[in-house]
Amino acid sequence: MRQVSEQEVLRVDGARKSFRTPESGVVTPLDGITLSIRNNEFLTLLGPSGCGKTTLLKTIAGFEELDEGEIFLEGRAMSAVPAHRRPFNTVFQNYALFPHMTVAGNVGYGLQVAGVKRAEETARVTDVLRLVGLSGLERRKPAQLSGGQQQRVALARALINRPRVLLLDESLSALDRKLRQSMQIELKNLQNTVGITFIFVTHDQEEALTMSDRIAVMDKGRILQLGTPAEIYDTPKNRFVAGFIGTSNIFSGTLAKDGGTSRVDIEGGPAIAVTADGFASGDKVDVMLRPEHFALASGRTGAGGSLDAVIENIVFVGTDLHLHGRLANGLPVVALERHARGAGALSLAPGQTVTLHYQATAPHLMKSQAA
Amino acid sequence: MSKRRFSSGWTALHIYGAAFLIFLYAPLALITVYSFNSNALNMAVWTGFTFDWYRTLFGMQPAGAAFDAAFTENPDRIFGVLRNSLIVALSASAISTVIGTATALATARYDFVGKRIYQALLFMPMIMPDIVLGIALLIFFVGVGFKLSLATIIIGHCTFLSSYVYIIVAARLAGMDNTLEVASADLGAGPVTTFRRVTLPLIMPGVIGGFLLAFIISLDDVVITYFIAGVDTQTLPLFILAMVRRGIRPQINALAVLLIMFSFVVASAGLYFRSRRN
Predict the structure, then answer these.
(1) What is the mean pLDDT of chain A?
(2) Residue ranges per domain, chain A?
(3) What is the arrangement of strands in the sheet containing A88-91, beginning at the earlier edge strand?
(4) Rounded to whole angstroms, how far apart are CA atoms B197 and B192?
(5) Burial class (CB in 10 A: 0-12, 13-18, 19+), B20
(6) What is the mean pLDDT of residues B94-99?
(7) Which residues, in sequence order, are CB contacts of B235 under 8 Å at separation 6+?
(8) CB contact under 8 A, B187 and A98
(9) Tens digit of pLDDT for each residue in B24-49?
(10) Chain A closest CA to B265's CA: distance in Å?
(11) What's the superkingdom here (chain B) (predicted)?
(12) Chain A nearest C-alpha distance from B172 (Å)
């Protein structure tokens, strides 16, 4: 089994890059990024398009230069090392397979360029094609392969050089959902087998959650939060991260501490009972409640609170029911109910007022960004 | 859907199509037939089949009395002229292919000040009237003291052939995925290896197509060559022009047929290379 060690393999230090575009003035895809990547970990750079994640990947690969800052591989500065001398390999978003070469030619390219002997090349190509499940397709041209197969060729081509770090640029987004999910699992298994550090770029939060050891959430050229999927999901640092990962209800308000209890007064609406360590009374805060934190029944033990909402829509997704409703002050709210066959679903209907119960430990407080 | 509704328009289209092909190819067919006609005085009257015109073209003595004593062209001259033409066409198209390809690569891969103007200027030699280009080149060569020779013809041809090659290779490059070169670098290949193993093979159909087009254009250029060929250098088209001035002789028909066949082979090769890699 793969061991993620604390040992640092790659370090991005104060990376900054900006350029001028004819339309919108100066764009800053990297605005002071510092990031330490551990040996053998699966790190995901997650963010909306234009957040700088692909630029960061390209500067690590050496396709683009930094204006400021440095990238260190095991302590060695990389800025003077051109892309073709860096021990990193990339799986491109569009795979970038050489159309004039066969599968074996594509996969063996890195070895040929490095001057590896013919016999060894053939053996290693055979090995790596078996690893990605493409044995027997050596003589095919890329155009004769399906999207999933092309993706595997791209992966095999990048892996055969045994890179220190494998860079994956939105490499799964071109595949359909089912294929993507099976490739996600295969990629994880593969990483366990080969033991290489993976840096994965995606805008798909679900993909990031399922695959990563750690996620770096990026926006506007900065890393907003770096942590394990659970940390990012449970304790997002701000409204942006909370909204980007998973579904969430986020309310803005003012914290009021009253003896042992705390609550957040939502502007023009109800108060939410919270536990508020590290915040002072009167702080402007955002409160996040995940849909699964709400329960229609108040049967749970412990302190908590409730919100009354009018149901507007009920979406059935198999395992769950998504209840889309509105609070008295008009704010939208989403709650999630486990689908119990027959029972629960029948008693709910749009227009109905329900009470959504939550426990006091459920609401997550974040410093308001409005200021 | 009744057939009748279409019939009149359909027939007209058929006639038009046939007329179009006849208009294009009847003169070529006629020349081919004439080139085998033994009648030396009036080629429009068929007197019998002969290879004589081809034989005299290649310097072999004709068998029959059909040989026109008035035919005074020296076969050695024809070969000399043909050699000139091939030297010019091969050198000019080879040089133009290198220049045109390099230019296409530069404009496709790099941004530089004045790039748009530069690209627009590359079209100029193609849209400029040949006669203007010919005179301009003549004035230039004389002005800088170049003796008119095969070399000046080659240089002159390069000025406009480079544009043709540029346009064909640039079109090919536009259809090529830039990330392929990035991928090659990513896999450890330096710039030279990347060019040799990835870029060049992918644009090769365009390069070969450009070369063949340049070759054919150079081979039959009359107007520009006329100005920049010296008094003692002649290319095949100039030679034919000079021959025709003294009356159309049957040998010209034979020569024309050979040229048609040659062009056909070159054009076929070009089309074959274009289709093969797509």
Answers:
(1) 87
(2) 8-242, 247-367
(3) A88-91, A165-169, A197-202, A42-46, A214-219, A222-227
(4) 9
(5) exposed
(6) 97
(7) B81, B84, B85, B88, B153, B221, B225, B229
(8) no
(9) 999 999 989 988 888 877 778 888 88
(10) 26
(11) Bacteria
(12) 14
DSSP class of B62: P
Q: For A8-242, give the CATH class.
A: alpha beta
Q: Which residue, A237, A235, A213, A217, is CA-closest to A226?
A: A217
CA A43 → CA A123, A126, A165, distances in Å?
31, 29, 11
A237-243, Cβ contacts within 8 angstroms, sequence gap of 24 or more: A237/A366, A238/A286, A238/A366, A238/A367, A238/A369, A239/A286, A239/A288, A239/A366, A239/A368, A239/A369, A240/A369, A241/A217, A242/A286, A242/A288, A242/A364, A242/A366
Facing A96 at nearest CB: one of B177, B201, B202: B177
Are the beta carbons of A109 and B201 separated by less than 8 Å? no
* pLDDT tens-digit map of A128-142: 998 888 899 999 999
Rounded to two decimals, the ipTM of the complex is 0.82
For domain A247-367, the question of CATH label 2.40.50.220 is answered with no
The beta-carbon neighbor of A90 closest among B186, B190, B277 is B186
Of the partner residues A82, A89, A99, the one whose CB lies closest to the CB of residue B187: A89
CA dist., res. B160 & res. B129, Å (int): 11
Contact A333, A356 (CB under 8 A): yes
Taking the alpha carbons at both ends of chain B, their separation in whole angstroms is 39
pLDDT digits (tens, 9 = 90+) for A112-128: 999 999 999 999 999 89
Q: Is the CB of residue B276 less than 8 Å away from at least one CB of chain A?
A: no
